[in-house]
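Q: Here's a chain of 92 amino acids. Please give me its 3D structure as tokens.
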Amino acid sequence: MSAPRARATRARSARRRLLESTFQLDVLAAREYCEADERWAPAVAFLDAGDRAGWGLLAAMLTPEWRRRPTAASCLVHPFLAGEAAGASAAG
């Protein structure tokens, strides 16, 4: 495995541990944590678009009970991915 790829894999693993262990999949608590660190500002702003639609989608996708998670089709029509949130962000 190349060095950049190995770093990316470690970073994904660290983010997963952060969400699962530290925040116990509470994305709003994770948002507050990220908001306090300027390195995360672009990600927070991106997920905040459309009345925090990205955070809502992320929370739904991380639901521990797999039967309650949205399907790929429903994710694609979610306002955040369908572009409605991006349009609202650009207009506001």
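Q: Can you summarize the key feature?
A: The mean pLDDT is 85.
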